[in-house]
Amino acid sequence: MARDFDKTHKRIVESALDQFGRMGFRGTSIRGICREAGVTNGAFHAHFRSKEELFDQLVKPCVSGFDELYGSMAERYMDIASRGDIIRSLQQSLDSVGELIHFVFEHAAAFRLILQDSGGTRYEHFADDVAQAETKGMMAFMERCKPFLGRQRVLGI
């Protein structure tokens, strides 16, 4: 019995990934997901309360992982900047960007949904939110580096 439940769940998820990818969140219906998965609406609702919950379950782990990685990355380079090593801090920041890109590529299907097909969900502004966080982080970095800039120039850096 549990095996059938798992198979049905997998078919619903695969159908949803296909439907969301082709038609976006707004253009996808529970009925369409069910039709493609070969299940009833009742079977869908045994697994998910709503289309929103299904979408959330598909992308939330990736968003959480991205946020965690981004936060630890910012912490590392801000810590280095606090010690006055601006060049090393910038190098750490660039290395961290590589980690983020690797993470996004590892989870490409979910990020494609987030970046292209999430209109109508709480994720539709994800890219803007990341840009705002990066802007705030850069401003904080610049403030943190101010006390060290004169000394760096004297050293020829």
From TrEMBL:
Q: Write the record's keywords in alphabetical order, separated by commas.
A: DNA-binding
Spell out the molecular function terms from Gene Ontology: DNA binding
Instruction: Kindly indicate whether the keyword DNA-binding belongs to this entry.
Output: yes
Q: Which residue range or ranges hold the HTH tetR-type domain?
A: 6-66
- Where does this protein bind DNA? 29-48
- Cleaved signal peptide residues: none
| Gene3D superfamilies cross-referenced by the UniProt entry | Tetracycline Repressor, domain 2 (1.10.357.10)
Name of the molecule in the record: Transcriptional regulator, TetR family
